[in-house]
């Protein structure tokens, strides 16, 4: 009698992962590129620069209202649900999209500063954007006056490097009793949140794991559970089911532990069929999984037949085997090892471990259990401690202690409660910021808050100027000095106070901890008032973003015929560069066509001695030479008039 194919085995007929659709945020794309025309903007009258700067100003103004203890909220519309009322700069940044394409480029330029700081420190994106805006705004003024942009940029870069070192010397380690203060300041002076985060870190340790979940009541609560975390992320972004956080989150799931490389998809058929039939999520932890075996798993996940994720086992060699055994004891599973007589093809549900929750990011995995295996875990920890006592060498002893810490560690879960979805979203973002700020303070220490540390750094600029090479580099240092006052001025403005008055009064005091307390509208010792910021969030990334923007603005102002491409797809360009137009210093010329004869050079392109390269076998392109499918030409020059288009370019697509 014929049998119907199983939901999993029937899908194992394909094995080419490149045929899968890429997720939207994926960096790589296996699809054939489509050549599309883009609009060209010439900066003859400086209008392009003005529009870019308008976009930067708009972002800084919108995010600026959220800065400080008296910052306002921002309401974000939502097509598919209630609006968001947020005070988080990173969330606002992601939502800004302007209608004018050039202004939108300005938005994306400063977005880099906030995103980079948020990635590294988890908070501080608003301060970074405000500081980058200060650098761009002040830098544009001096560039407009005709100053050398290259030397000014070097002055900014050297000043930034020196000030980062100065900030590190101003920093100090955070004390245990100050963790609540750091968290509260980041959460908008909410000491209930600060105390909860401090309590969580006290119970699991400063380096312990704290996660945030949606609660089932209207009040916040803290829960301590058994669990383990290690540095291994998902094998493919297709497994992600939480797009906002780019994480995999599976509840009440099983774990398949395999101490070998999985190469054949048929090895997984039995266990995955059972997962699909009984509808339980499953996490595959193996030494590695080859693409041929991984592709069918991804396909069934995308079809909705499976709730599944796959990760590499932590460590290598013998350490990897020990880590898998530790995970098996924690989850109540069995490691599949061929040298012990276990084969993956014959594996059943009985060998699977269990977890109440598994959270997988790009770089780490968190396993939370219900504590049912506590006695086995304690027995294992006792065995490892005996091994430590009998081990002489430092490195093996260190590895054993790491295993003990992983097995005996607890995980704190902060459950966020609220009466409405809007309130819940706002509270979650505030608690996330507070937790990230606290972890950043633990990593690199704290400095005086309220923007006062940046103000104090501005007094160090005079000494840095003495080390610079020329007057234009010193102007770059002066630009940085002015930009450092922007955050403090904005905090004061949001509190209804004149920012210039606050800045002058703070700088007149020699006490490094003296500053303006915007929450109480008074001047005092901010360290004693428990107002402090993590050092990690201050000036690490915004100077570099501002620097690159100032330099590009300078080039646009200096080279009035230079072309600026925006990211907006436009109509086909019939004539891009007229005959005889020169490509100015540091300009770039590149064309690409996906269809033969779509791009035709109706005149030779000449390369001078300063031209660096051209991606074409011939040195000159003859009249009416077609640019064939998937062939590009590109050239760069450091000298004016080194590249000259003597004819015109027609039917061109630029991508």
From TrEMBL:
Biased composition regions of type Polar residues, renumbered to the chain: 1-19
Keywords (A to Z) from UniProt: ATP-binding, Chaperone, Nucleotide-binding
InterPro entries in alphabetical order: Chaperonin_Cpn60_CS, Cpn60/GroEL, Cpn60/GroEL/TCP-1, GroEL-like_apical_dom_sf, GROEL-like_equatorial_sf, TCP-1-like_intermed_sf
Residue ranges of the region described as Disordered: 1-24
Entry superkingdom: Eukaryota
Annotated CDD domains: GroEL
Keyword Repressor carried by entry: no
GO biological process: protein refolding
Pfam families: Cpn60_TCP1
GO function term, MF aspect, one: ATP-dependent protein folding chaperone
The UniProt record lists the keyword Transferase: no
Family indicated by similarity: Belongs to the chaperonin (HSP60) family.
Protein name: Chaperonin GroEL
Originating organism: Vigna unguiculata (Cowpea)
């Amino acid at each position: 009698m014929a049998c119907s194919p199983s939901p999993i085995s029937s899908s194992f007929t394909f094995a080419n992962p490149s045929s899968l659709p890429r997720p939207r945020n994926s960096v790589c794309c296996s699809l054939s590129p489509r050549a599309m025309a883009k609009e060209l903007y010439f900066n003859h009258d400086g209008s392009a620069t003005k529009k870019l700067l308008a976009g930067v100003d708009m972002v800084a103004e919108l995010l600026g209202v959220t800065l400080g203890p008296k910052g306002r909220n921002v309401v974000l519309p939502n097509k598919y649900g209630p609006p968001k009322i947020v005070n988080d700069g990173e969330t606002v940044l992601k939502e800004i999209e302007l209608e004018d394409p050039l202004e939108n480029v300005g938005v994306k330029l400063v977005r880099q500063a906030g995103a980079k700081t948020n990635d590294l420190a988890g908070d501080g994106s608003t301060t970074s954007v405000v500081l980058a805006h200060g650098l761009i705004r002040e830098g544009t003024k001096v560039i407009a006056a005709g100053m050398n942009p290259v030397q000014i940029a070097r002055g900014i870069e050297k000043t930034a490097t020196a000030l980062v070192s100065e900030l590190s010397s101003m920093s100090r380690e955070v004390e245990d009793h100050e963790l609540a203060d750091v968290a509260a300041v980041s959460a908008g002076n909410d000491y209930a949140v600060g105390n909860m985060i401090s309590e969580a870190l006290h119970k699991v340790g400063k380096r312990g794991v704290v996660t945030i979940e949606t609660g089932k009541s209207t009040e916040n609560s803290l829960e301590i559970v058994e669990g383990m975390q290690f540095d291994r992320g998902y094998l493919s972004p297709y497994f992600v089911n939480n797009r906002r956080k780019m994480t995999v989150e599976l509840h009440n799931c099983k774990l398949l532990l395999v101490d070998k490389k999985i190469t054949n998809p048929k090895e997984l058929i039995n266990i995955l069929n059972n997962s699909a039939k009984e509808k339980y999520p499953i996490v595959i932890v193996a030494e590695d999984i080859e693409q041929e075996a991984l592709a069918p798993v991804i396909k069934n996940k995308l079809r909705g037949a499976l709730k599944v994720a796959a990760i590499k086992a932590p460590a290598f060699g013998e350490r990897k085997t020990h880590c898998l055994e530790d995970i098996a004891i924690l989850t109540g599973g069995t490691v599949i090892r061929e040298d012990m007589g276990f084969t993956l093809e014959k594996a059943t549900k009985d060998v699977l471990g269990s977890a109440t929750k598994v959270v997988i990011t790009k770089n780490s995995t968190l396993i939370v259990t219900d504590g049912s295996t506590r006695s086995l875990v304690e027995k294992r920890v006792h065995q490892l401690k005996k091994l430590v006592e009998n081990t002489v060498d430092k490195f093996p002893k260190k590895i054993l202690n790491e295993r003990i810490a992983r097995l005996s560690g607890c995980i704190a879960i902060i459950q966020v409660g609220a009466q409405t979805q809007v309130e819940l979203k706002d509270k979650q973002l505030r608690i996330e910021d507070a937790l990230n700020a606290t972890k950043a303070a633990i990593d690199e220490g704290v400095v005086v808050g309220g923007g006062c540390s940046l103000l104090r750094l501005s007094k160090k600029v005079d000494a840095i100027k003495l080390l610079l090479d020329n007057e234009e580099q010193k102007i770059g240092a002066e630009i940085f000095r002015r930009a450092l006052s922007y955050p403090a001025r904005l905090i004061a403005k949001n509190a209804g106070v004149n920012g210039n008055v606050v800045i002058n009064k703070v700088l007149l005091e020699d006490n490094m901890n003296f500053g303006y307390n915007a929450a109480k509208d008074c001047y005092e010792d901010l360290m004693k008032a428990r107002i402090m910021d993590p050092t990690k969030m201050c000036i690490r990334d915004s100077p570099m973003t501002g620097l690159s923007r100032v330099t590009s603005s300078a080039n646009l102002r200096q080279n009035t015929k230079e072309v600026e491409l925006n990211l907006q797809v436009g109509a086909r360009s019939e004539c891009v560069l007229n005959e005889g137009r020169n490509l100015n210093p540091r300009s770039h010329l590149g064309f690409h066509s996906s269809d033969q004869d779509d791009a035709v050079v109706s005149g030779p392109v000449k390369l001078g001695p300063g031209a660096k390269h051209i991606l074409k076998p011939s040195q000159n392109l003859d009249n009416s030479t077609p640019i064939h499918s998937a062939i590009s030409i590109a050239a760069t020059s450091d000298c004016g008039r080194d590249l000259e288009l003597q004819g015109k370019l027609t039917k061109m697509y630029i991508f």
